[in-house]
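Researcher: Please translate sequence to structure tokens.
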Amino acid sequence: MISFLIGSIGLILLVLFFGKGNLLEVFKVPKWQLLGGLLGAIYISILAYAVPKVGVSISVISVICGQMTMSMLIDHYGWFQSQRLPINGYRVMGVMLLLAAVVFIYRGSTVNK
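Model: Translation complete:
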């Protein structure tokens, strides 16, 4: 909560001093675009819970693996008006290597326990 409070205060100050545009326009955007704030809060909450349990390295590589997987789906289907880039063996192998990294890092962190 403290993190979001400080971040919100910082963003408010940035908008007040450097912002250009009309803040009331936020009410005219599609509502699904406002989910970023909620999803960001969920993301930070999950990481705050996971890092003490599994460590920073596994948490970070897991996030990257999830982002790569989702970005491949977005590319493959052309969501959000992006160029369609089909999933191929090289891209799948890249994600598989990231998953292997998670396994090796996890096993390496439990060896000394």
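Researcher: Any highlights?
Model: Residues 56-77 form the longest helix (22 residues).
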